Amino acid sequence: MIGPTISHYRILQKLGGGGMGVDHRPECGRRSSICKLSQARQLAGEALHIDRGREALPFAALASALAGDSAQATSAADELSKRFPLDTIVNNVTLPAIHAGIEISRGNPAKAIESLQVSTAYEFGWGHESRPTTFAAWLI
After folding, report:
1. Does one domain contain both 26 and 78?
2. Across-strand partners of 17?
3. Which of 96, 95, 98, 92 is nearest to 122 (CA)?
4. What is the rounded CA–CA span in Å between residue 113 and residue 107?
5. What is the pTM assigned to this prediction?
6. With 0-12 CB in 10 A as exposed, 13-18 as middle and 19+ as buried, what is 84?
7. Domain limits at 60?
8. Are residues 63 and 129 in the same domain?
9. I need a surface site. Which of 38, 78, 99, 121 has the fewest CB within 10 A?
10. What does DSSP say about strands 9-18 and 5-6: parallel, antiparallel, or unpaired?
11. 3-class SS letters over 87-128
């Protein structure tokens, strides 16, 4: 099946096959960001169906957020929060990054920065008690 076009995808090569069918490497015929975002959304969704573990879920959620699928990213972020409530990395790095990605895709960079400020305290090693109250105080 190498060579034919399905919708705006051209089949480049066969990747493999098995009991569930045959996998092919497609090439998008449209050279636009809309096509690439569509592919990114699709791949992130497929990744979430394949593996929802601690290692894969954050990356698929962030990819979904940056591809503009805020519903899927929010759902994955909620799942991370519920499944790993005591995980320091998830709560102080991963979830803020996902929320920032969602805000970036919505065109709201100020909210994205606000989401990432939780990570700043973690990166500097400050606990909630010792964290400066203003950004200017952090610089001192």
Report:
1. no
2. 22
3. 92
4. 12
5. 0.61
6. middle
7. 32-138
8. yes
9. 78
10. antiparallel
11. CHHHHHHHHHHHHHHHHHHCCCHHHHHHHHHHHHHHHHCCCC
